[in-house]
Design brief:
33% of the residues are buried. The longest helix is centred in the C-terminal third of the chain and has 33 residues, at 237-269. The protein folds into two domains: 23-235, Undecaprenyl pyrophosphate synthetase, CATH 3.40.1180; 255-303. With 305 residues, the protein is an alpha/beta fold. The model has no long low-confidence stretch (mean pLDDT 83). The chain is 54% helix and 12% strand.
């Protein structure tokens, strides 16, 4: 009886959370942490933790499609993970190979038009995993509804370091002028990655750090971050909705901050001298409380067309 009541209450809360959301992130990146710790807690083999974690990954894709999220990036295997015992590595590689091929053949993936891509230093992976990556990418190459990036042999710091070296070499060789070193020059030297900036990073398992994950795509966009206690195999839809609520709250706070900074600049130098600030103010003023909006209309609205 108690279990049924708890399940009913959870269902009501989940629906309430979804009803309260007014927007969702375009790109969610997930650090799937806690598979091994979950297995130890449950008295299971480490490999079973990874298998159950893969089931959560399948569920996440379904939730993302329901919530109209455009892109999901999963931190599946980092360059540091190569330091694990050989038997664990072989089990992980077996599972990754199996799941990539299963996803590539799954009816749900094709019905939802999910495009699968792997990102990272893929040449470090066993040939059988590289073959599975190639298979999954070829099978879904024509889709564009939901992008699924699987980060394998991935290290954000290493990626940025290699890009910096390439830029330095291009400058030294005379192929790139120092004054032309800009965002585009760096981005074109990163290995192929997400199609858009990250809006929200989710990390399970209780650790509050982003572990060098997508630093270029997340930090530059000031992505929201949601840390939660459940291990990845325990992660539920209700946890995902809480993460999205964190994104929404951060987005609202960011809009207020932009509007207030623009208002301060307009007040300091005048609307005519700060056209960019005036545009920002016009864009984000609706994020401010009504009293502040009214003050803006009284002070600068005539010049803020």
């Amino acid at each position: 009886m108690l279990t049924r009541v708890r399940a009913l209450a959870q269902g009501v809360y989940e629906r309430m959370l979804e009803w309260e959301l007014s927007s969702t992130p375009s790109h969610v990146a997930v650090i799937q942490d806690g598979n091994r710790r979950y297995a130890r807690k449950e008295g299971k083999e480490t490999t079973e933790g990874h298998v159950e974690g893969a089931e959560t990954t399948e569920a996440l894709l379904h939730w993302s499609d329901e919530l109209d999220i455009d892109e999901v990036t999963l931190y599946t295997f980092s360059t540091e993970n190569f330091n694990r015992p050989e038997d664990q590595l072989e089990a992980i590689f077996d599972l990754v190979e199996e799941k990539l091929r299963a996803f590539a053949d799954a009816d749900r993936v094709h019905e939802n038009e999910v495009r699968i891509r792997a990102i990272g230093e893929l040449e470090m992976l066993p040939e059988r995993v590289q073959d599975a990556i190639d298979y999954a990418e070829r099978r879904t190459a024509s889709y564009d509804r939901l992008h699924l990036n699987v980060a394998l042999a991935y290290g954000g710091r290493s990626q940025l370091l290699n890009a910096a070296r390439d830029v330095a070499s291009a400058v030294a060789d005379g192929d790139l002028a120092p004054e032309n070193v800009d965002v585009d020059a760096v981005e074109e030297r990163l290995y192929e990655g997400p199609t858009r900036d990250v809006d929200l990073i989710v990390r399970t398992g209780g650790d509050e750090r982003t572990s060098n994950f997508l630093p270029w795509h997340a930090n530059g966009n000031e992505a929201a971050v949601y840390f939660c206690a459940p291990y990845w195999p325990e992660f539920r839809r209700i946890d995902f909705l809480r993460a999205i609520r964190t994104y929404e709250n951060r987005e609202e706070s960011w809009r207020k901050h932009r509007a207030r900074r623009a208002l301060a600049l307009v007040r300091a130098v005048g609307a005519a001298e700060a056209p960019k600030a005036r545009q920002v103010l016009g864009r984000f003023k609706d994020a401010l409380p009504s009293a502040e909006r009214e003050a803006i209309e009284d002070e600068v609205e005539p010049a803020a067309d």
